[in-house]
């Protein structure tokens, strides 16, 4: 039965535009998005740009473009914190008026000396609360601090279970530089409330911020959203993911030729699995299966080999149009999609783990190296044998109709000859004549791609080389 009292699900991704879209942010966005879609809720993008020194428009653009490329878009207008300064001011005043916040006059230098002293005497380096009851005037205030209550805060994390924090170890935290410049922990509380966020799903690195946010919510008399902290993404050596092992920004993966649908599939498995532990799942299946209950607590290792394998599966199963648009995305107009390219795409689909390999594969198929005649000769065979066998092949190939010039047909016809004349003695010179290389794709695939005219030209040239 439809439950009128059931809370509406609304989640958000709240990136700070201080860097490029990181894989970790993409994973958090995806989990939020899947959770919303699975539960018929809403997903919102909120740009946390109150740190004016570090926030940049180009990063915001990169983040939004990257999410869009992955297919993750906001269900409502994108929210920017810098457009909501009046709202934060209202709540800051509330906290100041109720005595839950105060202006602090300590300078950076004073705070630093205090911090050092605490460390030297083996105490936690937290703010002493010196300005707490001094009634400092706003003009003298360096920052606005929140009076962190001296209590234990316990909250139920949907992934980690009960999490407990002793707030007396925290010290009074700065929540704004002034009425118009809120800081992270405070602005988040206001936004999550004002936007009606039901669940905050974010990285484990924010776990220690949650009790601070809950304390601020309590002081403002606000209901807390539900919290779920996702496990860290780790490098293979189990350290936090860094550039040392693999690319960390989504844009880099895009440029390397990972299909967004493959990256989504891979990222979804970073700390989550379906009931049947399936490896290949398209977006529809992910939405259907996604539940927070199956998010793990332990860190999730980023395994590039697995990503490559997943990507290769998606490439293999994509149609020509899909590959064409993805290749254009990477190579721009460097690729002209003529008949030959179409054929190469067809064969390359089974060979690529990422689309950036396409150029290399194209070269493998099309480029004819300037090779010595001796390369045409198979092991202990002779130049004469190579020449004669190429001639027989040529006569047979000439008789194949253009429309029958396919890998399968050519294989049928020429393998019959190769079995009579010796496989090495026929297939080796044929393949070298077509590629000019010691190693290359097989002769039938090459002929299929090159077409009848070009294949015959290359075979003829090889025969001439051997006649010299
Ligand atoms: N702006 C924070 C970040 O980029 C958001 C944290 C949160 O989701 O509350 O990490």
Show the helix and strand layout.
Elements: E1 10-13, H1 23-38, E2 42-47, H2 57-70, E3 79-80, H3 85-97, E4 101-104, H4 108-120, E5 143-146, E6 152-157, E7 161-166, E8 173-178, E9 181-182, H5 184-194, E10 199-203, H6 209-220, E11 226-230, E12 233-234, H7 250-256, H8 260-268, H9 283-289, E13 300-301, H10 304-316, H11 320-331, H12 339-348, H13 358-366, H14 383-398, H15 407-421, H16 423-435, H17 443-467
Parallel strand pairs: 1-2, 2-3, 10-11, 12-13
Antiparallel strand pairs: 4-5, 5-8, 6-7, 8-9
Helix pairs in contact: 1-9, 5-6, 8-10, 12-13, 12-17, 14-15, 14-16, 14-17, 15-16, 15-17, 16-17
The structure holds glutamic acid.
Walk me through the structure:
It is built from 17 helices and 13 strands. The chain is an alpha/beta fold. The strands form five sheets. It has a four-stranded antiparallel sheet. β10 (199-203), α6 and β11 (226-230) form a beta-alpha-beta unit. α5 (184-194) packs across α6 (209-220). It starts with 9 loop residues before the first strand and ends with a helix. Bound molecules: glutamic acid.
Briefly characterize the structure.
This protein is of the alpha/beta class and 468 residues long. It has helices at 23-38, 57-70, 85-97, 108-120, 184-194, 209-220, 250-256, 260-268, 283-289, 304-316, 320-331, 339-348, 358-366, 383-398, 407-421, 423-435, 443-467, and strands spanning 10-13, 42-47, 79-80, 101-104, 143-146, 152-157, 161-166, 173-178, 181-182, 199-203, 226-230, 233-234, 300-301.
